[in-house]
Amino acid sequence: MFGNDHPIVLELGCGKGDYTVALARRHPDINYIGVDIKGARLWKGAKEATQQAMPNVAFLRTRIEFIEAFFGPGEVSEIWLTFSDPQLRGSENARLSSPLFLERYRKFLKPGGIVHLKTDSRFLYEYTQAVCKVNDLKVLVYGTDIYEEGMYIPEPSLRDPSHPDGWLPPSCVAGHPFLTDMGAVLQVQTFYEKMFLEMGLPITYMAFVIDHEGPYAFPGEAFDHDYWLAAEGPRRSFSHQPAPRQ
C-alpha cells in the first residue's frame, strides 16, 4: 500500500479522519491508516490527505469486526481507539477494547505493540482497565482527566527522572520519550473531543500492551458495570449540550 517498510499505525473508528491526518503530519516516517464503516466520514480526511500530498496516510472502509482480514502477523505497530462507542447498554463484545477485539488485534499487532484508548467515557475507560487487570496486560500510562491532572506511569523503568513518582503534569506530557509521541495525546484533538471539552467533560487516556498467552478473559466482577453505568449518566447528545466551560 505505502511502498515502504515504515511502521503502520491504525486508528479504528476514525470518523472524519482528523486524528489520523494530524498524527501522520507529525510523523512522516510512520504510515497511518484510518478505519471506519462510513465513507461519508472518511471523505473529509481522505480529501485533506490528498490535497496536502501526504504519502503516509490511507483510509480503509470496513467494519472493524473484519479488520484482521486486512493485515498479516506483526504488520501493525500501534492501534488508536479514539472516542469509540462505549456500548453502554449494548453487547460487551461490541466494545473495541473487549477480549473479542483484543483477540483480533493480536493476530496482526506486533509483539509489544501498543493500544491507545482516548475517550470521554469513564465507563469504557474503567472497563478497559478491568480487561487489562484480569489478563495481566501491561498498562504503560493512564489518566482520568488528562488536561487538568496529567497522567501516571506505573512502570518505574519508563518514568521521567524528573518525575520519579510517576505522575506527569500536563505541562510535562509532551516531552516524555517512552511513547512514539506523548505530545499527540494532548495536542491532537478530534472534532468530537473539542465538543466534549467545550461541554466541560474530562478526557481519559490509557496505553497498554496486549501481549498475552492463551485466550483473553472477560473482566466479570472486576468491572462494576452498574456502578460505572450510573456514574456515566445519560450519554451525551450533541442536540442537547450543557453550557460550554467558561
Structure description:
The structure is a single chain. This protein has 246 residues and is of the alpha/beta class. The protein has one domain: Rossmann fold (3-Layer(aba) Sandwich). 28% of the residues lie in helices and 20% in strands. The protein has a 7-stranded mixed beta sheet with strand order 3-2-1-4-5-9-6, sandwiched between helices. The chain has a two-stranded antiparallel ribbon with strand order 7-8. Strand 2 (31-36), helix 2 (39-51) and strand 3 form a beta-alpha-beta unit. Helix 4 (122-134) packs antiparallel against helix 8 (225-232). It is globular, with a radius of gyration of 17 Å. Mean pLDDT is 90; it is low at 237-246.
Distance between the termini: 46 Å
Share of helix, binned: 25-40%
Envelope shape: globular
> What letter string, H or E per element, gives the SSE order?
EHEHEEHEHEEEHHHEH
Identify the CATH homologous superfamily.
Vaccinia Virus protein VP39
CATH topology call: Rossmann fold
- Overall structural class, as computed from helix and strand content, comes to alpha/beta
Helix count from the secondary structure assignment: 8
Q: How many domain units?
A: 1
CATH architecture annotation name:
3-Layer(aba) Sandwich
Mean pLDDT: 90
Widest sheet: strand ordering: 3-2-1-4-5-9-6
Unreliable residue runs: 237-246
Rg result: 17 Å
Q: What can be said about the biggest beta sheet?
A: 7 strands, mixed
Number of strands: 9
